[in-house]
Amino acid sequence: MDAYKKYAAGGEISYTGKIDTAIIYSGHNRVLVYGLFSSDPKITSCTIYWDNRADSVVIPVTRTDGVDTLRTYITGLSEGTHSFEIVDYDKNRNASIGVFKTGKVYGDVYVQSLVNRTIASSALNTDLNTELSFANIDNSTGAFTTEIHYLSNEGDSLTMFVPVSTSDTVLNNHQYGSEVSYRTLYVPDTLCIDTLTTDFETYQPVSGSTWVDVTSSYVKNAGNSFQYSSWDGSRWGILADWTTNDAVKNASGYGGYELRSEGGVLSMEGGWGLPGVTNGKIYQTIVLPYAGQWRFSALIDVLGTAGDKYLVVNKGDSLPDITDLNSATGYFNFSASAEGATVNVDFNVTEPSSNITVGFVSTMPNTGSYYKITSVKLQYYIEKK
Known about the structure:
By secondary structure, the chain is mainly beta. It folds into 3 domains: about 1-105, Immunoglobulins (Immunoglobulin-like, Sandwich), CATH 2.60.40.10; about 115-205, Sandwich (Immunoglobulin-like); about 215-380, Sandwich (Jelly Rolls). The chain is built from 3 helices and 29 strands. The strands form 6 sheets. Strands 17, 18, 19, 21, 22, 24, 27 and 29 form an 8-stranded antiparallel sheet that branches. A 5-stranded mixed sheet has the order 2-8-7-4-5. The protein is rod-shaped, with a radius of gyration of 38 Å. The N and C termini lie far apart (about 90 Å). The relative contact order is 0.11.
């Protein structure tokens, strides 16, 4: 009590109300000072000091009947942690008790330490769009997204953002073969008002002439294990999504599908109690959206030497008979091919959205003839740009 009286000797001391809820938001060479004026209607100004009053700024305050907000940027600050003191004044220069806070400032040293997220690889997807795969990045550093700039097929500049939680992204309508530029964006702490970035880097995605696997977009039930629409509950069945003619269905109305130890295969067989197959056909019709060079392939599991076995491609909705294969768009006789080999038919499409039928045409004697197909593949050729 005596100490208070000594302090108050000479008259009553009048204090101005101090600012409430003071927060220093971090930033890039700057901070945002935030607070609320709520306790004293007589406040006319606020002085913000920093670094032990080495510098300051005076903010005029016009009070209203409610709660008023202080929101002031202090710029040109050096990198590091700074101390701040906020003092309110009334018109008679009566000061409030100081409110002390610290705030962090990010600068060039911090920015230069930021790491750009790595693009690990690129490929063309089945829609012929460029797909990028990113390496992981530690999001505890404040990294939250990667900004990508690229050219469209029309030559326009496009921008997209890939969150750090996303590993793969598609550059829709990317001009094949053109470089992309990218940088990673950071917000280093929850109070930071600025987004900090790495420098842009360039990346060359997949380019040059290449075959692109588009099987999953156009071919149904392509194998590795083929699926059946119906089967005898034991070995033989009818393939789902493929057309199988009656000549192939020589196992009590089933045929074209066979369940083997490794899974379902596309199959034709004659002998071992099965009738021969004459002009057997297994095929499906697909719509190809692009003009250009295409390839239809089949991976052989096993096959015997007897019989005539053809991989066939034909424009339209059907395959020609085995006696008329010269009228087909393309065909390959794989009767003498090795087990485990991949056989191909290359063909050109001149008009987009063309109906093309792909499949197999075979004649198999009843003397122990067979072939089994593990999978089929459809590819499109991209020219070098």
